[in-house]
Amino acid sequence: MTGEYDVHGGAHGLEADMDDMDATGGAIRDTGTEVVGVAAASHRFLVDGNLLASAVLSPGTFASFEAEMVAALDGPSALSAHGVKMTAAGFFMQAQAKAYLAVDRAMEIADDVGDWAQGYTVPLQLAWRLSPAGLPGTVLDLAELADEGLFTNPEQWLVEHPDQLEELVASSPGFVALLGTLAPPWAQPLIGFPLDVEQASSTLAGLYSQELESLTALETYESESPSDIQGALQRLDDVAAHEDQFQIEEVDGVYNVYLPGTKAFDAPGLESGLVQNMGTNFAAVAGDDNAYQQAVLEALADVPPGAEINFIGHSQGGIVAARLAEAIANGETDVQGRVNAVLTAGSPVDHIELPEEVRMVSLVNEYDIVPRLDGEAYGDKSNHSTIVFEQQNGGTTPNHGLAEVYVTEAGDIVGSDDAAVVDALGGLGDFGGGGDSTVTTFQMERG
Q1: Helix (H, G, I), strand (E, B), or coil: what is residue 132?
Q2: Is 399 helix (H, G, I), strand (E, B) or coil?
Q3: Cβ contacts of residue 60 below 8 Å, gap of 6+?
């Protein structure tokens, strides 16, 4: 083994186990139903004409046969009873699988409600903590946070406590809703009352321009497609060196789409004019239309029907990749290709649920804060595997770097013999298997 990895979801996750349990229960139920059917059909032998005629010649033998046949078909340990038991066992197993998933979903909803309430009650928590009585036990423990260095070195605190940042983001909709109640009446419709991170992100996305002005194919050249995730991320890193560019690679009817991350961390009213900016981040997290997605859909317009499409994205590019895969797979666009897989690196995509036929693998550095920005814990979907590793480089940017962190780690992940890792990577395919390819670089401009 080349590295230790914590793999969430995929073929080894809870949802996959429950899917297997449901399928096994269905097979047992169907077999039991067939057995009951065979038993029912076998009753015709009890009234077979030739058998009834033989009763005149040998009444004792006839009576003995009838008794044994009835016992074999309808007795306590007979065929019918076994069939009924199998059918009931199959139904019970399927019900258990659905119940496990329902409980898991209920726990997720309860966590979401708790996070929202935590954000909404921030003033109460502060008052409680700062009260003369010094009442303990609040969620917001300022003294503990101060001891951990939040106020003296916030960046260091973030990279050492990414889980607390995730909780903070998860509670942000409740805090935004609180602001809505405190704002002047004329401003409340602008703030809204978001119930989750997606709605809060949509509110912020609306403060930015989301229109695409133009898309230009800058150059097309011959290359060699990657054959594994490290090669795919290396190609992504090459195009990430330029602002507002992405690439589409075609190899033997397979289309690999390379989507780099954020280039401008701008604020509303002070926008950089770039497509790969904070406005796109908010829109992609929310699932709203944005210039980045508009550009990629335009570039994919000529993909032949049924052609395989793979998305590879880092940071913002990973969110956009997952949203594009979601829209195309659900038939919400004019793109005729078929989405096969999505590979993300350092992207907050746990809140995005793709159709079952689309496979997604997410690489996450445990100390990278960016994947935490959707406020969601690592998912457990059967078609989404998250491969988590630890690389602490001492800062938010060093922990998030595409080349320094994710391309390098991908080389070790490819060589891993961990069964969960192997199965996760197997679902992605080989991105064209290293064959001759044609690569087109696109330049985006915002309206």
Answers
A1: coil
A2: coil
A3: none
What is the phi-psi region of residue 175: left when phi exceeds 0, alpha when psi lies from -120 to 50, beta otherwise? alpha
User: Does pTM top 0.85 for this prediction?
Assistant: no
pLDDT digits (tens, 9 = 90+) for 371-423: 998 888 787 788 999 999 999 998 889 999 999 999 999 999 999 999 999 99
Q: 184 with 202: CB under 8 angstroms? A: no
So what's the pLDDT on residue 360?
A: 96
Output DSSP code: residue 442: E
Angle, helix 14-42 to helix 79-120, in steps of 10 degrees: 150
Instruction: Answer yes or no: are the C-beta atoms of 83 and 35 closer than 8 Å.
Output: yes
Contact 385, 424 (CB under 8 A): yes
- List Cα–Cα distances, 304 to 43, 159, 323, in angstroms: 57, 44, 21
Both tokens assigned to 152 = 């003296």
The sheet that has 254-259: what strands, in order across it?
6-9, 384-389, 359-365, 338-345, 308-314, 254-259, 245-251, 436-446, 212-224
Distance CA 12, CA 35 (A): 33
Tokens of 108: 């997720």
- Which helix (DSSP H) or strand (DSSP E) does residue 387 occupy? strand 384-389
CA distance 158 to 165: 7
Tokens 């897989």 belong to: 341
Q: Provide the 8-state DSSP code for 12.
A: G
What is the number of other CB atoms lying within 10 angstroms of the CB of residue 336? 15
Compute φ and ψ for 310, nearest 5 degrees.
-120, 135
For residues 283 and 226, the answer to whether their CB atoms sit within 8 Å is no
At residue 29, the pLDDT reads 82
Q: Which pairing describes strands 308-314 and 338-345: parallel, antiparallel, or unpaired?
A: parallel
Cβ count near 212 (within 10 Å): 21
Domain ranges of the chain: 13-111, 212-446
